[in-house]
Amino acid sequence: MQTEKQIVESVRKGEREGQDEMLRRYANQVFAMIVKQVPDVMDAQELTQDTFLKAFRNIERYNDRLSSLSTWLCRIAYRLTLDSLKRRRPIVVSLEDYSVWQTDISDEELEAALSTGNEKRIEKLQELVQQLPDEERMLLTLYYFDDLPLKEIAYIIGTDAKALAVRLYRIRKKLYKSLTIEH
Fold first, then answer.
1. pLDDT at 119 over 60
2. How many Å apart are CA 76 and CA 103, to the nearest integer?
3. Could you tell me if 116 and 87 are in contact, meaning their C-beta atoms sit under 8 angstroms apart?
4. CA 150 to CA 15: how far, in whole Å?
5. What's the pLDDT score for residue 113?
6. CATH code matching the domain that covers 4-88, chosen among 1.10.10.10, 3.40.50.720, 1.10.1740.10, 1.10.1140.10
7. Do 50 and 80 meet the contact criterion of CB atoms below 8 Å apart?
8. Do 51 and 30 touch, CB atoms closer than 8 A?
């Protein structure tokens, strides 16, 4: 079994075996990440292919000191998916409700409020998540559904972990506020 380093070197040399091994090892992970955001399976498959084509063309840019190969591929997939979603979805300007930021609630209280509830509340939360801007929805998916650490997500989306933690907090707070308005 080839190491990541061997796969990268093989792809850098233009060897088909390296490309095949990269696809075999990482295509399912990349597809799973994309299909959670793109409802059409064919579109998700196309974006997966585009991710690997871009990776093959830009393999010289991969730096194993910055991330694992799978994280680098997820970063490419994230950007391609976000671009695709932006092209397909009408641009919606969201004016944040100022009162959301005035509500003082701890991270623990937010987690408890958003993670518990009856089936109707869970359905409402899922509906609210689908209404979020693409970037926010993808961020929640990477963190909660893909269970990626903040450091990896920060690399994928091109920010630092502290800023990411603040963004996650604000998104959860917005969801919390939307849920409490309903009740």
1. yes
2. 36
3. no
4. 34
5. 57
6. 1.10.1740.10
7. yes
8. yes
Q: What is the DSSP letter of 36?
A: T
What would the CATH number be for the domain defined by 98-182?
1.10.10.10
**pLDDT single digits (tens) 58-116:** 999 999 999 999 999 999 999 999 999 888 765 444 434 434 444 455 556 656 656 65
Dihedral (Cα; 149, 153, 159, 163), 10-degree rounding: -50
Beta strands in the chain (DSSP E): none
Q: Token pair of 148, please?
A: 């990626």
Q: Find out whether 103 and 158 touch, Cβ atoms under 8 Å.
A: no
Tokens encoding 72: 């680098």
Higher-scoring residue by pLDDT: 41, 180: 41
Given the structure tokens 């604000």, which residue do they identify?
A: 170
